[in-house]
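Have a close read of the entry that follows and walk me through the local backbone shapes. See right below:
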Amino acid sequence: MAAFVSVHMNQSGAGSLLTLFEDRFNGGFYNTAADTELWLRGKEASDGATLSANGLAVHALLELGSITGDRVYHDAAVHTASRAGAQLEQSPASMPYLLIRWPELVQAQLPAENAAEPAMQ
């Protein structure tokens, strides 16, 4: 029962994350909610003294997608990571937290027939 409650609470939090912070058109997550009174909302992909909201979101969404099997979370993580791709190519050291999950994100983008190499016998 505790596991169910934990997953349900995480799904509820992820729903809020997607509703209030996600940039659905350009990818990534803002640092402030959509209902903020600020007229400028930051959306940094690189880590600084603290981890970026985008790196944290990618980790959380991949985990929740893995636990629940819901592609919505996984797809949001991939969309966020794809936004960071150009910056990652030029400066990979700027986002180490996102790089931890990069192989999983790249693997998810491969066509099904190329996703796994045939076993050598």
Summary: Residues 1-6, 112-121 have pLDDT under 50 and may be disordered. DSSP finds five helices and no strands in the chain.
